[in-house]
Amino acid sequence: MxxxxxxxxxxxxxxxxxxxxxxxxxxxxxxNNDSQTQGYRPxxxxxxxxxxxxxxxxxxxxxxxxEEIDHEFAPGTQAKCWGYNGSTPGPTIEVVEGDQVxxxxxxxxxxxxxxxxxGIILPSGMDGVGGLSQPQIRPGETYAYEFEVQQHGxxxxxxxxxxxxxxxxxxxxxxxxxxxxxEAKPADRDYCFMLHNWAVHPGTYRPDPSVLxxxxxxxxxxxxxxxxxxxxARTGERVRxxxxxxxxxNHPIHLHGTQYQVTGSDGGRWPERQWRAETTEIVGVGQTRxxxxxATPGDxxxxxxxxxxxxxxxxxxxxxxxGVDQSGIGREIQNVIPGYMPMGKNGMAEHQxxxxxxHMRGPKNTLPMAAGVGPHGNIEMGGxxxxxxxxxxxxxxxxxxxGWYKAPPGTxxxxxxxxxxxxxxxxxxx
Length: 430
Description:
Blueprint: H1 21-38, E1 44-45, E2 54-56, E3 59-74, E4 77-84, E5 93-96, E6 100-107, E7 116-118, E8 142-148, E9 153-158, H2 163-166, E10 173-178, E11 189-198, E12 217-220, E13 231-234, E14 238-245, E15 251-255, E16 260-265, E17 268-269, E18 276-278, E19 280-283, E20 288-294, E21 298-304, H3 327-336, H4 349-356, E22 371-374, E23 377-381, E24 385-391
Parallel strand pairs: 1-11, 3-6, 5-10, 11-14, 13-24
Antiparallel strand pairs: 2-3, 3-4, 6-8, 7-9, 9-10, 11-12, 14-20, 15-19, 15-21, 16-17, 16-18, 16-20, 21-24, 22-23
């Protein structure tokens, strides 16, 4: 396991000034009209946005600015991160197979950087590997990347300069390339999100890039549950989820309530004969996967199936012993480690209950391990967890949260007895 080292404080340029709302509205309208003209449905980025472009002599010109930002993982935890154009992940770039593109990259960081277009077929000199295929982009410089888009699929962009630091503190984004020819089975709703992990130690305000796979904050688009947007759909719609992984671990992404089809990757949408039915798909480090399903009514969990990836950081390395009453020793440890929270004697479920009641407070800038309250009580999740919310009456193009699902009578699990000795279930005899 990598050792924990103190991360030297980073200073950077101020965030890019916000554009006037009228300009942003005009760019959004033009982008939407362009997508209709070119025959694709724009992608919706969970908790994110799509980067507008300017058309110059037939070339789509985008502009990215690498800079230091203040990022909130969820209310209660904020850190100094690095991102593009004010956010991490950076804005999603959407283009169409056959487009001519120019992407300007301004470096407002305190060290050099580059951008690698992950999985993209292009000239070697545009590949973005600092020192190998191009000079480093020095602080204050702007470089241009120009190429013709020769493929389609779900892709990523990230630095290929001081990667261990720059990716770890938030420099990453998604690049979605729509096919030139209309799809035989188009998606009615097209979502994308990126998997990542962060080490924000209790009481600190900068991610630690030396921690790779330890007990971190595991995120969908740099948010932990319940701050992650839900996936919203109308009953019967075809939904595509584009999942990219730039964390330092593999993630088995599990969706409740359906068998989805794995339909594509950064190699593009696969021929239908290669689609395969799954309920859990491992998205490896540096990979992307597209999964598609027909929406059925309900609130369905969508999460990584590593249990500790759906929790937030414990914030200490002291063992928690199940079955041991730690309340006394816990108070003594708190005198040395303020904010220390022992596991409950009977499990971690006590943790969220105590937090909700105000009996426990963690260290500054630290989230509870488990959070979220649903219609039936505590959800007890964090990290890489969100919900797919499907309703019969959601209008096409409506992505607003419809609230909690009201199950039809007789379709919810119910209590039969409160007697622990109820019934006579068969038991194995040894």
